[in-house]
Amino acid sequence: MRKPEQFKHITTDDQWDKINGQILRELNAAERQFPDWPIEIDRGVAIMMEEAGETQKAAIDYSYGRGTKGEIKTELIQTAAMCIRMLSAMEPKAN
Q1: Do the Cβ atoms of 37 and 82 come closer than 8 Å?
Q2: Is-contact 62 69, C-beta < 8 A?
Q3: Please, what is the average pLDDT of the chain?
Q4: How confident is the model at residue 94 (pLDDT cuts 50, 70, 90)?
Q5: 48/88 Cα distance (integer angstroms)
Q6: Residues 89, 55: contact at Cβ < 8 Å?
Q7: Is the pTM of this model over 0.85?
Q8: What pLDDT, in 10s, does the model give residues 43-80?
Q9: 73: how many CB neighbours lie within 10 A of its CB?
Q10: Which of 85, 48, 50, 56 shows the shortest CA–CA distance to 72?
Q11: Residue 92 class from Cβ within 10 Å (0-12 exposed, 13-18 middle, 19+ buried)?
C-alpha cells in the first residue's frame, strides 16, 4: 500500500511498508484462525475493543515497568487489524 502524502512527515517509506506489512500479516492470520466474523456490528466492535483494551493494558504495564514497547506494538498491530476487519465487514459485498 502506497503511503499517503499527508503521512510523509510521520514515517519513512520503509517504516510505512513495515507497519502495513505487519498489520496485513496479522489480519490474514486472524482471518485464517477465525474465519467467521460476526454480522452484528456491536459484536464486531466488541472484538476490536477487546484488542484496544489489551493495548491499553500493555501501555499501563509498560508505564509501571512491567512490559515492553514491543508488547504495545504487538497489541497496536492486532487492534489495527481488527479495525480493518470491522471496516471490511461493513462494506457491501460484491456479487
Answers
A1: no
A2: yes
A3: 92
A4: low
A5: 13
A6: no
A7: yes
A8: 999 999 999 999 999 999 999 999 999 999 999 999 99
A9: 14
A10: 56
A11: exposed
Q: CA–CA separation, 55 vs 62, rounded Å?
A: 11
**For residues 53 and 60, what is the distance between their CA atoms, to the nearest angstrom?**
11
Helix 13-33 to helix 69-90 angle (10° resolution) is: 70
- Look up residue 10 and give its three cell numbers: 510521520
Residues 6+ apart with CB under 8 A from 73: none
Mean pLDDT over residues 7-16, rounded? 80
Q: How long, in residues, is the chain?
A: 95
Q: Residue 74 belongs to what H/E stretch?
A: helix 69-90
Q: Tell me which residue has cell 507497519.
A: 19
What's the rounded Cα separation, in Å, for the pair 74 and 54? 10
